[in-house]
């Protein structure tokens, strides 16, 4: 018995040593151009598919039919995924097709996966393939928005794809030379602005759905610091971090000044219905706080107020409720980054519950944006024609 | 009282000595049933009952008999003391924090409450502890005989910064107390010096008013201490640091370093120039 064990031991040692010598010799060809044997490919795919299925067990899929989510996911897909995975009317890049394994053309392949499996793949990426993990692991909400788009992908055509991913630029109103004029001096800034416009619009109002926050009329200081925080990884976002990290400091300043300078952008219609009671609660939180629940007023920092405000504090009037609420939830989940400013806000958010968050977000969405000189008894905001 | 106690003591010791030195026949009477009942039950019951009655008689003055000349509401919060001076009708005359000034020699009623967990109000040099229990109001009347500064401390463990939940009780001559109280009821000084104005604007612009009140300015928050006259108090952070421009600046920029877990976030965003201006403004609020 002992002798047999000894023999087996020697045999295993011999095999291990042989494997090591084989790797050392460099005789194994790691060339992507060499491809895999059919059995190797089968085995790797078998392992990957089973791993994804097992690892994604227990994930709860949120509702995925929200247009804002789909737009947000689609727009990220356009910038981050399309070149490798293709899109309706768009082939995969020739370069990506030379990867091993080649990334699948998703419009044809995506329906082979369930939503929870897609979430897991987009969030964590896949080892031994070119599929990267999501840049901000804290942001499940962003990953789900990509999944929401992927769920629609098989059924949409090129026109709808353009609409979802490019907003105003899809509907024929190309960015005019006049709009780009402020950027013609800075190298590359035109490209940078085009990236912003795709989601936030040339007038900084987003797309009116709440998919993207409104930037028009924010202070340049705030917008610049937001870009810096994204670029430095201090504010987690798998969508904004890669975009901001590509910008030079000068581009950030130019872009921040551009959106800060837009003062006449139309207010969007409220996206979500709200009843009077909820709005009253939202107003109370925003303007006075609820002191016996330890909730400070928002308005001292975020307006509306006639007193001076630190320009690094964003103003919230007219901002989309869905955006405000999501940011507050991120703070509550400790996923809103770690800067001097975000830590201050973390203390303010501490005692808000989900109902408070919804109420105060709906209240701010309904406030008129940017009213430096409020007219006494002014008429309710009329229709804001295009 | 002392003589009675000494006599009983000598009696007990004497009897003990007798039981040791006397021969057995002569000390047998001590074990008789009547002697045991008389000395072990009747005598102590009679003496202790008399003393209890006497005790009630002596302490009758402490149990609310004295009419307080001043009523102060003190609310324990994690980890500081909200202090409200009440007027005759029970309304709030003015609010302050972490420092209680009283006229020396006059009985003061403290109305003790808690906003969150159990705290305990304790000024060791002046009176015993009394708990502050959520949902319950305890009252406690006592006076400080001599003018002076007495340190108070939370005496019931109330969370991470329980040890840094202190306050000062300042007993003043009645005349100067009245002048002080009148000053406290006034709004904050409207400062004219440029740096102080700058500091005040920064105080407002950075949102301090969402939690703090400085009467006479747009700052009307009610979550943290009223700062209308913070510059005139002995300490900041509930007895944590003495009040001066340096400690104020250090506190504002690094509360979480000085007193980790406290509700106020560190305002690490402030540039040193701005921080100094805000601290100078607060220090000027006497």
UniProtKB/TrEMBL annotation, chain A:
Domain of life of the organism encoding this protein: Bacteria
One Pfam entry name: Cytochrome_CBB3
The protein's name in its UniProt record: C-type cytochrome
UniProt-listed PROSITE patterns: CYTC
Gene3D superfamilies reported for this sequence: Cytochrome c-like domain
Coiled-coil positions: none
Naturally occurring in which organism (per UniProt): Chelativorans intermedius
PANTHER family with a match to the protein in the record: CBB3-TYPE CYTOCHROME C OXIDASE SUBUNIT FIXP (PTHR33751), CYTOCHROME C4 (PTHR33751:SF9)
Native organism taxonomy: Bacteria, Pseudomonadati, Pseudomonadota, Alphaproteobacteria, Hyphomicrobiales
Segments forming domain Cytochrome c: 68-154, 167-263, 277-368
Keywords attached to this entry: Electron transport, Heme, Iron, Metal-binding, Transport
């Amino acid at each position: 018995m002992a002798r047999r064990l000894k023999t087996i031991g020697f045999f295993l040692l011999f095999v291990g040593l042989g494997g090591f010598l084989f790797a050392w010799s460099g005789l194994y060809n790691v060339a992507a151009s060499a491809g895999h044997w059919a059995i190797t490919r089968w085995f790797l795919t078998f392992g990957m598919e089973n791993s994804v299925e097992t690892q994604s067990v227990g994930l709860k899929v949120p509702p995925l039919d929200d247009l804002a989510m789909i737009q947000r996911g689609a727009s990220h897909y356009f910038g981050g995924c399309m070149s490798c995975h293709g899109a309706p009317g768009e082939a995969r890049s020739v370069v990506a097709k030379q990867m091993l394994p080649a990334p699948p053309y998703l419009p044809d392949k995506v329906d082979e996966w369930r939503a929870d499996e897609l979430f897991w793949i987009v969030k964590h990426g896949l080892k031994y393939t070119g599929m990267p993990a999501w840049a901000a692991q804290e942001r499940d909400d962003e990953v789900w928005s990509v999944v929401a788009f992927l769920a629609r992908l098989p059924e949409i055509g090129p026109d709808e794809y353009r609409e979802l991913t490019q907003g105003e630029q899809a509907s024929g109103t190309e960015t005019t030379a006049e709009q780009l004029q402020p950027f013609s001096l800075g190298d590359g800034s035109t490209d940078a602005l085009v990236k912003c416009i795709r989601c936030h619009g040339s007038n900084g109002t987003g797309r009116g759905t709440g998919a993207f926050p409104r930037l028009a009329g924010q202070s340049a200081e705030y917008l610049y610091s937001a870009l810096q925080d994204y670029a430095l990884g201090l504010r987690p976002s798998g969508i904004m971090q890669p975009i901001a990290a590509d910008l030079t400091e000068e581009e950030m300043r130019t872009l921040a000044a551009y959106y800060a300078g837009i003062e006449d952008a139309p207010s969007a219609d409220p996206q979500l219905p709200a009843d009077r009671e909820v709005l009253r609660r939202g107003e109370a939180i925003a303007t006075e706080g609820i002191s016996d629940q330890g909730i400070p007023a928002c308005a001292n920092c975020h307006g509306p107020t006639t007193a001076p405000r630190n320009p690094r504090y964003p103003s919230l009037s007219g901002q989309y409720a869905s955006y405000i609420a999501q940011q507050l939830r991120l703070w509550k989940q400790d996923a809103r980054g770690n800067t001097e400013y975000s830590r201050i806000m973390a203390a303010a958010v501490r005692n808000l519950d989900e109902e408070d968050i919804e109420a105060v977000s709906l209240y701010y969405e309904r406030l008129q944006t940017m009213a430096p000189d409020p007219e006494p008894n002014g008429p309710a905001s009329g229709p804001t024609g295009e | 009282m002392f003589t009675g106690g000494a006599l009983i003591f000598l009696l007990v010791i004497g009897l003990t000595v007798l039981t040791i030195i006397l021969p057995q026949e002569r000390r047998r009477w001590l074990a008789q049933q009547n002697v045991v009942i008389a000395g072990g039950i009747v005598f102590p019951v009679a003496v202790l009952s008399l003393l209890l009655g006497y005790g009630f008689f002596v302490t009758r003055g402490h149990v609310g008999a004295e009419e307080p000349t001043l009523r102060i509401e003190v609310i324990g919060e994690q980890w500081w003391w909200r202090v409200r001076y009440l007027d005759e009708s029970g309304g709030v005359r003015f609010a302050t924090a972490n420092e209680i000034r009283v006229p020396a020699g006059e009985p003061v009623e403290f109305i003790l409450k808690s906003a969150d967990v159990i705290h305990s109000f304790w000024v060791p040099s002046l009176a015993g502890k009394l708990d502050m229990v959520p949902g319950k109001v305890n009252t406690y009347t006592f006076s400080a005989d001599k003018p002076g500064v007495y340190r108070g401390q939370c005496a019931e463990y109330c969370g991470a910064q329980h040890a840094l939940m202190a306050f000062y009780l300042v007993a003043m001559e009645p005349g100067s107390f009245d002048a002080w109280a009148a000053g406290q009821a006034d709004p904050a000084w409207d400062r004219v010096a440029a740096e102080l104005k700058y500091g005040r604007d920064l105080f407002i612009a950075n949102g301090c008013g969402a939690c703090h009140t400085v009467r006479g300015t747009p700052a009307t928050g009610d979550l943290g201490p009223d700062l209308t006259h913070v510059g005139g108090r002995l300490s900041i952070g509930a007895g944590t640091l003495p009040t001066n421009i340096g400690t104020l600046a250090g506190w504002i920029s690094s509360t979480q370093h000085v007193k980790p877990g406290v509700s106020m976030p560190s305002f690490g965003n402030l540039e040193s120039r701005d921080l100094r201006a805000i601290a100078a403004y607060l220090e000027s609020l006497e």
